[in-house]
Amino acid sequence: MSRDSLTPFSHVILVLVGEDGAGAHDLRRMAARGGRLYWAAAPSQYYAEPKRLAALGYLDARSEPGRTHSRTHYTLTERGREALRDWLATPAPFPRLQLEAPVRVLAADLVEPEVMRESLEALRKELHEQIGQLDVAEEIAASLPHRERWLLLNHRLSRRLVEAHLAWLDEVDEQLGRAR
User: Fold this and answer.
1) Is 13 exposed, middle or buried (0-12, 13-18, 19+ CB in 10 A)?
2) What's the CA gap between 112 and 57, in Å, rounded?
3) pTM of this prediction?
4) Which of 58, 135, 144, 154 has CB atoms 3.0–4.6 Å from 53's, for a disulfide?
5) Tens digit of pLDDT for each residue in 95-122?
6) How many other C-beta atoms lie within 10 A of the C-beta of residue 145?
7) Nearest 5°: phi and psi at 126?
């Protein structure tokens, strides 16, 4: 893929910038507030990708005052809007999945049940943290009236995914109890 090509993550950034625009710090905060449920990316990518998209003409970048120093605020260009329209007109594929926990469970016969249970406990804690982040994200949605219904729709999907993982972890715990 060429350095000038749009990637799936490029489209994520264009969508998040949206009509109101956003700074890279705003994009990273959006991702931290539950965006991981939609797209996994290193925090640094939320700073690098908008800069790259601006250099390619998909975003405009302007300097605005910040709390301690100036910040770059990005807005969509016509080229960015056109790229989004083209992307949105293509079929949405099945999500890419990288579910490490089920792979670990597949190897449960190789360790004691308590080792597996402890290995998965961090995931349970993280899922409960995600529920808290979704609670906050749902409250914030009202402050974005042009996107509120779409945000809430996505948050309901995320909540279902988190709840499905929690129910699955309960099943794993039950099976590990039987393995003793």
Assistant:
1) buried
2) 55
3) 0.79
4) 58
5) 888 899 999 999 999 999 999 999 999 9
6) 8
7) -65, -40
At 91, is the secondary structure helix, strand, or coil?
Answer: coil
Residue tagged 């945000």 (tokens) = 151
Structure tokens at 133: 């982040």
**Residue of 10, 18, 5 lying closest to 41 (CA atoms):** 10
CA 10, 16, 17, 23 torsion: positive or negative? negative
User: If you search the block for the tokens 């991981």, which residue do you land on?
Assistant: 36
- Residue 71 burial (CB < 10 Å; 0-12/13-18/19+)? middle
Tokens of 96: 């890419």
How do residues 28-76 score in pLDDT, each as one tens digit? 888 777 666 678 888 889 899 999 999 999 999 999 887 888 899 999 9
Reading the block at residue 22, the tokens are 């956003």
Six token digits for residue 180: 């003793």
